[in-house]
Structure formats: C-alpha cells, structure tokens
Write a structure and sequence with these properties.
single chain, alpha/beta, five-stranded mixed sheet, 12 helices, 11% strand
C-alpha cells in the first residue's frame, strides 16, 4: 500500500470486515488518521476530462504532453502535472508496442542542417491492404524544418519512379544540397546514379546495416507507422493516397513537434523566411483516377463480393 487512496481502502476494509475502530485500523495499516479523513478539494473539471477523452480517442498515439498543446488554444488553463493526473485517472496511457534490444555505447548526435533544403532524407515504408497485397510508401523528409515534403504510395516504386518524383518535388520546392538514404536497390540503381549526375545533387549513402545514420527519417517512419498505418485499414490504393496526404498535411500543419519547441513543422519552417511559409501541396506523378473515391470504394466492394 503506497498511495493514500490504497491506505484509505485498507482502513475501510478493516473497519467493515473485522469491525475495528478507525484508530486501531490506522495503526494496523500504518496510516495516519488525517490521511483517512482527508477529502480532496480539487475541482472535478468535467469539461476538461470530456475534451481530453475526445482528443485521446481522435489521436490515440499522442501522450499527455502533446495533448496539452492542443488543449491550451481551446482555453483550458492547466499545467502538465495536473493534466497528467487526470490523464492517468482516465486510463488514457499510450501502450508501447514491443521493444527490441539496443546496442550499448556512446553515440555522437547527428548534426542538424542550418537551413531548409540543406539535407533531405529518403526512406521506404511498407504495409498491406486488407486483401494481403503489399504496397510501399516513399517518404521525403527535410531534416532542418522537420517537414514531410512528400509521401508517394504505390505497389511498386522503381528507381526511375523515385527520380521522377524528386524532379517534381524540386520543381516546386527547389533543389537540395544533399540527399541521404540507405543502400536499397531502388536508390542505388542506374536511374538514380544518372539523376544525381544530371542534377548535380550530392547523394550520401549510409553504412550498410546502420539505419540510425539516417535517424531523422527513421524517427519519422516510426510516427508514420504508429499514428497512421497501424491505425488504418486499407482497401484500395486510392484510399491509401488520399488518407496519406491528409495525414501528411496534419503532420506538417497541426501536429506539434517536441524537438522544435512544440511548434508545428510549418510554423518552424516559416521562421527561416517567408518563402518557406507557403503550405506544402505536393502532388506526385501517379495518374489520377477518373472515378471518385466513393466510386472506387464501391467498385472495390463489388470486386471483393464477386471473387468471394
């Protein structure tokens, strides 16, 4: 029995079951009588609790500190300690998904670029539809501003497709000084080697088996999987692209980032100059479907029924 509430329950149990007096029950439980008689004077805050529960249901992988950033603009005056107490009482804790053993030893922190477009980081993330078919996502991340510049989803992403997407992104965003990635076959293909030679963009490959040398995009991939991929069922490629773009815009413009003072990446980017304040509305090279999203979902359901 550590908490005062547990001690009060023990004293009440001894008095009810064993018919002990309050004084004797407190002596047995090792509890002060003032602790038993104390009644909290804290306001219950039903509006705060209701809004906190609603936000936690909407953003299930957000902890109490990030939820606090959303509550303050809505007029709730509460510090992090009080919010954490209510957060625990409502049992809204985020459960950690399986860990893994990590190597011990000292590590030097990665250098953060001084300006936007100094360094882009690329990586792939994979998932599957409800039917079991796999798809992949190419993520492009600006390490300085912490913005997700592009998320390209398709069932196949070749080196030529990656080069084409980078050309479209550069035409809109500007050319980066350097790009960092792993040694995947798509990123070491002749198409990418030719593209780097033509565009004069320096491309840095991390050491094989050392993903944390590209730690910024690996961290972003973790947020992408935890907050979006693991929370969504996908039935079609069109649904993936629409939902992924909505999540990317939310990540850049709404979601606060702890490493940049709980600002959003868009607000952080605007601090480098007005040219970086415009919203990110990158559209990839994938062909747009003739049918609408609702029509595509209806066609997919008909196909699933027809195939059993």
């Amino acid at each position: 029995m550590v908490t005062p509430a547990a001690k009060r329950e023990a004293v009440a149990h001894l008095g009810k079951v064993h018919e002990m007096s309050e004084r004797r029950a407190c002596r047995v439980a090792g509890c002060d009588r003032m602790t038993v008689r104390y009644r909290s004077q804290r306001p219950d805050d039903p509006k705060l609790r209701e809004r906190l529960r609603a936000l936690a249901r909407e953003r299930r992988r957000f902890g109490y500190r990030r939820l606090l950033i959303f509550l303050r603009p809505e007029g709730f005056i509460v510090n992090h300690k009080r919010l954490f107490r209510i957060y625990r009482e409502e049992r809204l804790m985020v459960r950690k998904r399986g860990g893994r053993k990590r190597a011990l030893g000292t590590r030097a922190p990665m250098a953060i670029p001084a300006a936007p477009n100094d360094l882009w980081a690329l990586d792939f993330v994979s998932d599957q539809f409800v039917c079991g078919r796999r798809f992949r996502i190419l993520a492009v991340y600006d390490v300085c501003t912490r913005e997700c510049l592009a998320t390209v989803a398709d069932t196949s992403l070749s080196g030529k497709r990656v080069a084409r997407e980078l050309d479209l992104l550069i035409a809109w965003r500007g050319k980066p000084k350097m790009i960092v990635s792993d040694n995947g076959t798509e990123l070491t293909s002749n198409a990418i080697l030719t593209w780097t030679a033509d565009t004069q963009v320096e491309w840095h490959y991390i050491a094989p088996g050392k993903p944390m040398q590209n730690g910024f995009v690996e961290s972003f991939n973790g947020r992408l999987r935890d907050e979006f991929l693991n929370e969504t069922l996908f039935t079609s490629l069109m649904q993936v692209r629409v939902a992924l773009e909505e999540w990317r815009r939310d990540y850049n413009n709404v979601r606060p980032h702890s490493r940049i003072g709980w600002l959003t990446p868009a607000v952080h980017a605007a601090q480098f100059g007005p040219q970086w304040a415009r919203p990110l509305r990158f559209e990839g090279s994938a062909a747009h479907p003739i049918a609408t999203t609702v029509q595509m979902e209806k066609i997919n359901r008909q196909i699933q029924v027809a195939t059993g």
